[in-house]
Structure formats: structure tokens, C-alpha cells
TrEMBL record, chains A, B:
GO molecular function, one term: oxidoreductase activity
Protein's UniProt keywords contain Hydrolase: no
Keyword annotations from UniProtKB, A to Z: FAD, Flavoprotein, Oxidoreductase
Xref: Pfam families: FAD-oxidase_C (PF02913), FAD_binding_4 (PF01565)
Annotated protein name in UniProt: FAD-binding oxidoreductase
Gene3D superfamilies, per database record: 3.30.465.10, 3.30.70.2190, 3.30.70.2740, Vanillyl-alcohol Oxidase, Chain A, domain 4 (1.10.45.10)
Residue ranges occupied by any FAD-binding PCMH-type domain in the UniProt entry: 40-218
Cofactor: FAD
Record organism: Proteiniclasticum sediminis
InterPro entries found in the cross-reference section: FAD-bd_oxidored_4_C (IPR004113), FAD-bd_PCMH (IPR016166), FAD-bd_PCMH-like_sf (IPR036318), FAD-bd_PCMH_sub2 (IPR016169), FAD-linked_Oxase-like_C (IPR016164), FAD-linked_OxidoTrans_Type4 (IPR051914), Oxid_FAD_bind_N (IPR006094), Vanillyl_alc_oxidase_C-sub2 (IPR016171)
């Protein structure tokens, strides 16, 4: 169906980019065959490092004309196989397009290349007293990866998700045309919002080559609360009450003892407390300590009324650091505790979180498999991991598939969606196809065709 | 090209809806032939009042099969002719689908039918201590109209635009299929964001039959500042400095003396001050008076340093009411002061507002025509009105077209967009076509085709 890369194609790429940025065959590292948690892998036929929008455009023009599949890749921290070149072809490695181009203090925007990693953006803006709110756990992800999954992260409860902070994009279309969508403007009602469609499109509609992000002033004070509960039901049951109380926490995370212990072992560092079965971790921000205290006092009281064993207030950097670095290591820690794992990233309405988590405990018993979960209780986005441990290949695949089928069905019953922030990519397609009816899927396919009539950009992903 | 409505079609509609909700020929009020500021008008061949999603779906199925154009209409407060049935056909009047269906306090959402008007939503939620931040000037617009233009309003500076508050939609596609997109979930990365595409699509991609809106806790205190300046340049020049100071005002509006005088006359009510040439009107909110004071004190000081003549603080309801009701009447007041007018709704980066407004003053002299402007200085979205006054039809059309061409060109030069919140509809198409290159327009047309292959839903609008 697709054209295989031949000597002329390689020649074209080498002439365009120079020898040293074109990798073929064994020169391509195995790393580029998979992402963080794929289960699927394939190497591209050729991997190129691009440095400019114009290069991306020239390569897409060539690929479009020749019918060669192309996949764009950032840090490869995805969790659904979205950047795996399942049809081979060309992989565009965008990690070297990693400059911060402009901080515009008059318009509160930051313009960056696609390969800048999240922790650099955070550092850059915070040093200058600005704030980029999206805060996914994986700090080495590139900004374009975040845009393409519409990553949410911890602070979504108060601040929303990546899409809400993308003001403008430069995008190279599958046919090589360069499009500027949005800009530094705050409002835009000038034709269909292509910007919002690119956000969350997982590299299937266009290649992001520049992004203009919205910044906020940096809140002057952030305070975290670590709240132990006797059990998870009580912890999670408290969350809708916090929301209903009209407090405005920045984040509400939940975690269980086992995950904390795994993180302690993984980091070789003690968590401030690990004696309880379940915890809520909350943060609050504002411009004065008094203002922040006012907003968390009510919540602390409410937690205690709901049966919390204590409320630890972390207002020193050190203590906050120890809590949040543990939280940041959960994924890696759980991963290190087993042989293999796969994740379910559903998002359910916030008052359904407890029901969903209880159900995963039932599954753990029914299927005799370890299931670990943590996540964003405050926004209903749950990360549930099924662990392989000692299972052989066949038993693992069978069990995983049965457990996933149950979890995604339950999420649907609870009016949830198949992915909160990791995306669909390749791995979660079957569950998305179950979620939507035919009319919905047809529309998604039609949208893909509107951008990519030859289906060369990241084929076989999302809705295909 | 399109099928004309015949007796069978009318019969079908009457059987579906009953005689009393189907209007044909002279039974259709002239009101339905235009919107608020169109310049274009045409009556539909048949106008129907719908009450349920199922009715909308049945009508679309019929229209799709027969090839009849359909336009959906709310309150008709649009400003670009988006709801004018320029091809005749069926008009769906959605104003009677006006129920507030559910306030979900656990998930902070409000689910409404499309015809609920904005002021009802504001009243309903504020009485219950919740807050729906989007606040366009036209309070009698329907919520579906707001969604379809992605209306912004005054509070966008701090709170963003309508799209940011739409969590889920029920949409009837041109072929009659009913789609549920999004929901009560806070995060969603499950396929292309159809929800975000529908927002701002001006009734051309689907018909919104239900919306689930995100609410916030109601801020307990709002304080407004009215700041007179010796001239408009000084007033507007202060805005980027306010943004840069990292204050977080809810709104920054600018207004000139002439517009205030027109509003006073129109409302027969005095504005708190009308002695200065130009004003900024700011508002700040928060949960305590101290917190709000803290945030505006710095801004008040900054305004005085920049040459403001005074700073009037309005913390009583009465005084705020008098200021904001005048602001709310600007459009009507300017309209009442002339024979006819047309508006330019550009959005430019915030630090370009002064340049754009200065340019409109140059145009006023160069073309010897009255131009009035006011708007959202804090977000760069400007409403500039060209007034016909005594010009005859031909001279008016010629002058308007020349002045508009200049203004939209200038907006493009300043990296602005053709519409901030009123949309493109029918009237602003030429300016959008000038803004985007061919690849962009092709993509917009392809997206339209992805939803509406027979081009029956609101044909001839946005990108056609």
C-alpha cells in the first residue's frame, strides 16, 4: 500500500538535511521503535533529525508525493503507541527543535519550538515569575507531545488542560503546506478552530512545528496538604464533597499505601507518612499566605469531618519536594515493581471516581491479578495499572484483555471516556471503537481525511 | 441546486410537530429574515419551532434525504448574518428548547437546552452561588448562539471564552444522527475534539441540542474601577502595562466620551463621570475584600502614574450597576445615534490595541465618516462601528467597503484575526478569505464536507 523507502528517498533526505541527520537501518537506535509503554514496536525505515519548519515541510511534500508514511516523534514518553511507526516509513525526530523562541511579557505568551521539554518550560517561566499551569507527571515529555495528547496533569482541577493554554500553532500539513493557526490573540472566532482540533490529534492531522502558549502570573504561594485516611473509600468519597464545598484546590491526587511504598523503594527516600492505607494530596495556591490558608482551612476541616486521620500541611519547599517527587515517581515505581504492565487512563465524572476504584478492587480479586491505581481524583482522571508479575505471555495477554474490557465497560457505564490524557494512539483503539457509535467513528475518519486524504501521516492511529 | 419546499415537506413537518409549530409564507414574521446587524435578509420557506432533539433529528434526516437547506436560529442577536437562511429552506427555531435541565453540584456542571438565554443562566447559577464566567454584552443571546460563535465577552481577560466552559454537547449532524461529545468529564483525550470544532462553527457543522457547561464557585467580591484619562492614547497605552504588572483583572474595557454620552442619552441615565475624553473600566474579583483590594491597588497606582486623572472605585451594587448597564447599552446606543451601521470585530494582540485604535481615528478623518469604538482592551478584542448617518445607499456601501478593507488589512498587519467573537457568518467572509491562504481555506472547506457532504446545513456561511 505505502511506498517503501528507496535509495532515492534517502538521497533526497541527505541532500536536504546533510548526512549526519539521516539514519538508516542499523544506525537507528532501537529506542525509536517504541514508546514508554507500548507493547507494540517497529523501527522506521529512516529516521531524520529536523531543525526547521521548512525542513519538515520539504519532507512532507516529498512523502506526500511519493506516498510514504511519516511519524513525528518527540521524547517518546507516550503510553499508547501513538509515535510507533507501525507502517515503517520516515520518522521525524523533533527533539532538536528545542528552542524557546520568545517570551512576550506584554501579551503573556511564550513561543516555543516543538521539542522543548516540559521541565524546561516550567523552569524558564518560573524564573521569570510566570506560570505555565499544565503539569503532567512526565516532565521530560516535549511540549508538542503534550499538545498532541492534550495532556492534563495534576493542576487541571483549577487550571484546565494543555489545550486551554495553546493560543497559536504553526502546523505542517500532510501535503507539506505550512499553516499558522491562532496567534497571540486572546479571542478568535474566525472559522473552525483548527488549533483545537490539532490539540489531542496525536500526530495524525499535522505536525506541530511551533506553539504559542498562554502564561499566567506565577502565584506567590503554594501549600500542599497530605491527608491520611483509614481506607481508600473514605479518601475518595471525600473528593466530591471538597468540590461541592466550592473550595478551589489546584490539585487533588489520591494514592494508596502500596504505591507509596513502591515509590519509597524506587527513590530510596522516605515519604512524610506511610502508616495509613490511603491518602489525598491536595494543593492550593494564591498570592498571599492568608488567602491560601483561608481556602485550605475549610477543606482540612471537611477532611477531618469525613474521617481523615490527620492533615499534614506542607508549606516548606523541602517537604513539598519530598511529597511531590514521590508523586512524580509513582509510574516508574509501579513499573519497577513488576515485569510488565499496561495502563487504563479513563476519565469519569468526579463523583464516580469511588465507584470506579472500588470496581478495580473487585477485578483484582476476581482475576487474581495485581492492579495499582493513583491519579487525579480531583478531575476524575484515573491511572489504573494492571501488572503482569509472573504470568506467562499467553496468560498475561488473556488476563489483561479481559480486565481491560471490564474496566472500559465500567467507565462507559459511569459516563466516562476512554482516555483522559494519554490518548488513543494504537493501543487504545479497540476501547474507543466500543465507546463511540458508527456515526461518531465515521465523523472522526472524515476529519482525518479532510487533513490527510492520502493517509500518510501517522497511519493506523486514533480512528483508523 | 437545492430542493424547494413543497406540499409534501410541509405535510411531513406538520405531522411531526403539529400544525401550530409550522409556519409557512406570510405566517413567518419578517424578524426571521435577518439578525441584529445583517444588511442581508431572506425569509425561510418554512419556519418550525422544535421542542426535542428527536424532532431536530427527524427533520434533518428528511432534509438530508431531500436535499433541503436548513438553518438553526436562536434569539437572532448575531451580528454577521450567520442565521440568515440565504438559500431559503427550513429554519429551525430553537428558542422554545429553553429548559435548564440539571445543576450537578458534585461535578460543577449545568446542563441546558440550546435556547436558554444567557441572562437566565447567569441568574440561575448566581442565585445558587455558582458562576458561569462568559459574559458577552448581549444577554438575550441563547447559549447555543454563544457556543456557535464562541462568544467571549468582558471577562475573557481572566476567565477565557465560551469554548473553555463547554464540557459536553449533544449535536444533531446534518444527516440526522445524534452525537454526544464530551460530557461531565474534566479531561478528555479520546479522539479528535469534535466539541471544540462545534464551538465557533456558526451552525454549519451540526445543531447543538444540549450543552453541559462548566461552572465555578461564585467569587464573593467584585469591585470595579472607572479610570478617566485625558485622552484615549493614554488610556489604551496603560493596558499592556497592567497586563505586564501581573495583576489579574477580570475585565478591562475602554470607552470614549462620545460613546458614554450616547449611552446616557439612550438610557436617560447619568454615568458616574463623563467629563474626560477616555476611560478604562476594570473589574477585579476574589473571595475577600482584602484580597481584591490587594490586587487592584497596584493597578490603580499604575494608572495614576500613567496619567489617569482619577480612579473611581465602585464597590456598591448601585454604582457598579450604573457603570455596567451603561457599558451594556453601548451597542444599542451607538446604533440609535445613526441611521445604519456595520461593525468590525477584530482581535489583535493586546499590545497592538493602541495602534489599531489610532488607525481608526486616521480613517475617520481620511474618509470623513463617523467611527465609534469600544471594547475589550484587556483581551485585544475591539468593536469598531462605522456609522452611515446621512450617506445615501451607494456612497455608504462604497465608503463602508473601503473603510473595512483598510481596517481588516491593518488588523492582519498587527497579527490580529478577522473576528474575536462575532464570527464570520455571511458578512465577514471576504475578510476571512483575505486573511487565510488557499491551503487554510481548503482545509476549512474539507472540514465542512467531513460533517456535511451534501452541504445542506447553513450553506454559504463561514468558508463557503
Amino acid at each position: 500500500m505505502y511506498k517503501k523507502i528507496d535509495a532515492q528517498d534517502v538521497q533526497f533526505l541527505k541532500e536536504l538535511l546533510g548526512e549526519e541527520r539521516v539514519f538508516v537501518g542499523e544506525a537507528i537506535s532501537e529506542d525509536y521503535s517504541h514508546d514508554e509503554l507500548g507493547g507494540i514496536s517497529r523501527l522506521p525505515e529512516v529516521m531524520v533529525e529536523v531543525l526547521t519548519t521548512e525542513e519538515v515541510s520539504q519532507i512532507m511534500k516529498h512523502a506526500y508525493q511519493e506516498g510514504i508514511p511519516v511519524v513525528a516523534r518527540g521524547s517518546g514518553t507516550g503510553l499508547v503507541g501513538a509515535s510507533v511507526p507501525i507502517q515503517g516509513g520516515i520518522m521525524l525526530n523533533l527533539t532538536k527543535m528545542n528552542r524557546i523562541k520568545e517570551l512576550d511579557e506584554n501579551n503573556l505568551t511564550l513561543t516555543v519550538e516543538p521539542g522543548v521539554i516540559l521541565m524546561e518550560i516550567a523552569k524558564y517561566v518560573e524564573e521569570r515569575d510566570f506560570f505555565y499551569p499544565p503539569d503532567p507527571g512526565e516532565k521530560t515529555a516535549t511540549i508538542a507531545g503534550n499538545i498532541n495528547t492534550n495532556a492534563g496533569g495534576m493542576r487541571a482541577v483549577k487550571y484546565g488542560v494543555t489545550r486551554d493554554y495553546v493560543r497559536g500553532l504553526e502546523v505542517v500539513l500532510p501535503n507539506g503546506e505550512i499553516l499558522k493557526v491562532g496567534g497571540k490573540v486572546v479571542k478568535n472566532s474566525s472559522g473552525y478552530s483548527i488549533k483545537d482540533l490539532i490539540c489531542g490529534s496525536e500526530g495524525t492531522l499535522g505536525i506541530v512545528t511551533e506553539a504559542t502558549l498562554k502564561l499566567l502570573p506565577l502565584p506567590k504561594t503554594v501549600i500542599s496538604l497530605l491527608v491520611p485516611f483509614p481506607n481508600l473509600d473514605m479518601a475518595i468519597g471525600t473528593v466530591p464533597k471538597i468540590i461541592k464545598s466550592k473550595a478551589a484546590p489546584v490539585a487533588i491526587e489520591f494514592m494508596q499505601r502500596e504505591v507509596i511504598l513502591a515509590a519509597e523503594e524506587f527513590l530510596d527516600k522516605k515519604f512524610p507518612d506511610n502508616s495509613s492505607d490511603a491518602y489525598l494530596l491536595l494543593s492550593f495556591d494564591g498570592n498571599t499566605k492568608e488567602e491560601v490558608e483561608k481556602s485550605y482551612e475549610k477543606v482540612a476541616q471537611l477532611c477531618l469531618e469525613e474521617g481523615a486521620l490527620d492533615v499534614f500541611i506542607s508549606d516548606t519547599d523541602e517537604r513539598k519536594q519530598s511529597i511531590w517527587s514521590a508523586r512524580g515517581a509513582f509510574l516508574e515505581a509501579v513499573k519497577a515493581s513488576t515485569t510488565e504492565m499496561d495502563e487504563c487512563d479513563v476519565c469519569v465524572p468526579r463523583d464516580k471516581v469511588a465507584q470506579f476504584i472500588t470496581y478495580t478492587h473487585d477485578l483484582e480479586k476476581a482475576f487474581d491479578v495485581r492492579i495499582r491505581s493513583f491519579g487525579h481524583a480531583g478531575d476524575g482522571n484515573l491511572h489504573v495499572y494492571v501488572l503482569r508479575d509472573g504470568l506467562d505471555e499467553e496468560a498475561w495477554k488473556e488476563k489483561l484483555s479481559a480486565v481491560f474490557a471490564c474496566m472500559y465497560r465500567r467507565a462507559r457505564e459511569l459516563d466516562g471516556v476512554v482516555s483522559g490524557e494519554h490518548g488513543i494512539g494504537f493501543a487504545k483503539k479497540p476501547y474507543m471503537f466500543e465507546q463511540y457509535d458508527e456515526a461518531y467513528i465515521t465523523l472522526l475518519k472524515n476529519i482525518k481525511l479532510a487533513f490527510d486524504p492520502k493517509n500518510i501521516l501517522n497511519p493506523g492511529k486514533v480512528c483508523q
